[in-house]
Design goal:
Radius of gyration: 19 Å
Shape: globular
Structural class: alpha+beta
CATH topology of the largest domain: Ribosomal Protein S5, domain 2
Low-confidence stretches: none
Largest sheet: 6 strands, mixed
Helix content: 25-40%
Mean pLDDT: 96
Bound molecules: (3R)-3-hydroxy-3-methyl-5-(phosphonooxy)pentanoic acid
CATH class of the largest domain: Alpha Beta
Order of helices and strands: EEEEEEHEHHEEEHHHHEEHEE
Length: 313
């Protein structure tokens, strides 16, 4: 039976995507820019089978987004029933971009197992249609996702700017409002039009800062994009509040570290974990400090990783 195993890494957006363009196809309302991490991994094995079946961490599972992704692929390619077995080495659906690595690995494994002959841009488009941020995890290093095609493109390879990320886990449970639901609700925020209108300028400025390896400028843009997104979420009736007390304490700790000489900035997504992006010399101090913040359960350290790839077939 044809089988393929793919791995992919989550990515963390420095200029955020939050909101969908009107109409079908899961098209983002604005461009985004991300870094792909190395030590966090989704591994997905796909085999041709008698009927579709999904296993997450060896347990049978149902997932409407996986079902929709399969239907989308089957509308374009003849694909037999598939057995899909997937697992993460990090908490799932907790604001750590497990859907990004999950769909990047899934599309990559299906392409190989079913011999569909997709190029990376095509895999990125199908992954993005399943979960907006997943299109970016097809590529490694620093990655952009912008229109009009809305397939991701790599900007820098991991070794071209070896940034590191300390992830402070403050709560490993599943988030209570999914990204898709949160995005739809956010359209009701009075800030939504301003958020969408201002993202293109952040994206262009961040891309320039990355090309110039200008860490301080990137820090300013990334923290602003993150706080602006959370401001939008807070102003979404009845208020999307993904932070907990430990998240806030981490943000203050990161700013204090920067004021005392560390090259570090923060970002947060739709969950209470805090990601501290560092230049490598600053990573040990940042990791030690965040590990001691009350409420932080553990810290993970990652460098920049490669894109989704086949590891066995
Ligand atoms: O790809 P989704 O639907 O899980 O949305 C991702 C949203 C954020 O992580 C908050 C921002 C981003 O650009 O990754």
């Amino acid at each position: 039976m044809p089988t393929a195993t793919a791995i992919a890494h989550p990515n963390i957006a420095l200029v955020k995507y939050w909101g969908k363009a009107p109409g079908p196809g899961n098209v983002p309302a604005g461009p985004s820019l991300s870094i792909t991490l190395d030590t966090l991994v989704t591994q997905t094995r796909v085999s041709i089978a008698d009927r579709d079946a999904l296993y997450i961490d060896d347990a049978p599972a149902e997932d409407t987004k996986v079902r929709a992704c399969l239907a989308d692929l089957r509308a374009h390619y003849p694909i037999a029933p598939l057995r899909i077995e997937t697992s993460n080495n990090f908490p799932t659906a907790a604001g750590l971009a497990s859907s990004a690595s999950g769909f990047a690995a899934l599309v990559t494994a299906i392409d190989h197992a079913c011999d569909l002959g997709m190029d990376a841009a095509t895999r990125s488009r199908f992954a993005r249609r399943a979960s907006g941020s997943a299109g970016r995890s097809i590529f490694g290093g620093v990655v952009a996702l912008s229109g009009p095609e809305w397939t991701a493109t790599p900007i820098l390879a991991p070794e071209e700017w070896p940034l590191q990320v300390v992830v402070a886990i403050t709560h490993a449970g599943r988030k209570n409002v999914s990204s898709s639901v949160g995005m739809r609700l956010s359209e009701r925020s009075p800030y939504y039009p301003a958020w969408v209108a201002s993202t293109a300028a952040d994206f262009t400025a961040a891309r320039t800062a990355v090309m110039d390896r200008d860490f301080s400028r990137l820090a300013e843009i990334a923290e602003h994009s993150c706080l602006k997104m959370h401001g939008l979420m807070l102003a979404t009736p009845p208020g999307l509040l993904y932070w907990n007390a430990a998240s806030t304490a981490c943000l203050h700790a990161i700013r204090a570290l920067r004021e005392t000489g560390s090259d570090v900035f923060f970002t947060m997504d739709a969950g209470p974990q805090v990601k501290a992006v560092c230049l490598p010399e600053s990573t040990p101090r940042v990791a030690r400090t965040l590990a001691e913040v009350p409420g932080v359960q553990r810290v993970l350290v990652a460098g920049l990783g490669d894109g989704a790839r086949i590891i066995e077939s």
